[in-house]
TrEMBL record:
Pfam families: SBP_bac_6. GO terms for molecular function: thiamine binding; thiamine pyrophosphate binding. One of its GO terms (cellular component) is outer membrane-bounded periplasmic space. Keywords: Signal. InterPro entries: Ferric-bd. It comes from Kosmotoga olearia (strain ATCC BAA-1733 / DSM 21960 / TBF 19.5.1). GO terms for biological process: thiamine transport. The lineage of its organism: Bacteria, Thermotogati, Thermotogota, Thermotogae, Kosmotogales. This is Extracellular solute-binding protein family 1.
Length: 327
């Protein structure tokens, strides 16, 4: 009887422990992800075992793990990646009551993904390098292809970065959905690019320390660097700019569906939204305090984007970029 009792205790303990963990992929910057997930664990007792990946890397890993998913939730990442994951059957719908509070257009109509915040594309110019080189910060998309900025621009690689692919689609929609003009522009831009980085935020960090004079990235990442003392000037493209909808999805076949839903709901709740609002982003949830927003979306001229088209054509456009530009 004692042996049976001991076995039962062990089984119950294992089950209890297995229910106290949720595995996640995240595209949030590591300090931000840690802040969010640590507080979730403190509030719920559920530990988040997370891996930080770029948007492109996450979609690629979900495809590779399709038959045996190694995570149950994807937090953050450019919304196009979440749409792509839906189209490939890699995620699963969840009609969270908290998701209903997110405005239409910023969540999937079938609830495969939900938007967390908006991040517009912007430029960063290192003030010290600009003075040394005798240049002014570029004001728009047509400025940064000027020959005066030869080998001065740093931007991510669209094979691994949703940020970089958002640059391609922004130019595409800016040129009235003309693909040939888009690639003509990208070839001119390529002449000014000194490096294509793996992640979308890397270029801004390099610019902050003067490794590159200019970088293209998301506004909130650049504001964070500036607030932390980086000597950079931030400009939002005057012709109009694209933006990401940083999103969240549940992974199809994830092994911790209950815990993943708890994390999903908590992130859309008031306490987590108060944290997200401090990241210099434009939150989408009404739970987030609006007084923390540095630049409201109404103050930005945005490009009219077609997110479903952009997601459906990502592989084709990226392949063309690899053929005509990639290095």
């Amino acid at each position: 009887m004692r042996k049976i009792a001991l076995i039962l205790v062990l089984v119950i303990s294992v089950l209890a422990l297995s229910g106290n963990v949720v595995k996640a992929y995240t595209t949030l910057e590591e300090p931000l992800a840690k802040e969010l997930f640590d507080l979730f664990e403190a509030r719920t007792g559920i530990k988040v075992e997370w891996v930080r990946l770029s948007t492109g890397e996450t979609v690629a890993r979900l495809e590779a793990e399709r038959e045996n998913p190694q995570a149950s939730i994807w937090v953050g990442g450019v919304g196009l990646g979440h749409i792509e994951a839906k189209l490939k059957g890699l995620t699963t719908p969840y009609k969270s009551p908290f998701a209903l509070k997110i405005p239409d257009g910023y969540r999937d109509p079938e609830f495969y993904w939900v938007g967390l915040y908006i991040g517009p594309l912007a430029f960063a110019t290192n003030n010290n390098r600009a003075k040394e080189l005798g240049i002014e910060p570029p004001k728009g998309w047509f400025d940064i292809i000027d020959s005066q900025y030869r080998n001065m621009i740093r931007v991510a690689n669209p094979n691994t970065s949703g940020t970089a692919y958002n640059v391609i689609t922004t130019i595409y929609h800016l040129f009235g959905d003309n693909e040939d003009l888009t690639f003509m522009y990208l070839k001119h831009l390529d002449k000014n690019v000194n490096m294509y980085t793996k992640s979308g935020s890397a270029g801004g960090k390099d610019c902050a320390i003067g490794e590159t004079p200019i970088a293209i990235g998301y506004l909130h990442d650049l504001i964070r660097l500036q607030k932390n003392g980086a000597p950079i000037t931030i400009t939002i493209p005057e012709e109009g700019t694209g933006f990401e909808i940083a999103s969240m999805s549940l992974i199809k076949g994830g092994k911790e569906p209950v815990e993943a839903k708890k994390l999903y709901n908590w992130i859309l709740g008031k306490e987590a939204q108060e944290i997200i609002a401090k990241w210099y982003v434009i939150p989408l949830s009404p739970e987030a305090p609006k007084d923390k927003v540095e630049v409201p979306i109404e103050a930005i001229r945005t490009v009219d984007q077609d997110f479903v088209w952009d997601a459906a054509n990502r592989e084709r456009l990226t392949d063309r970029w690899n053929t005509e530009i990639g290095r």
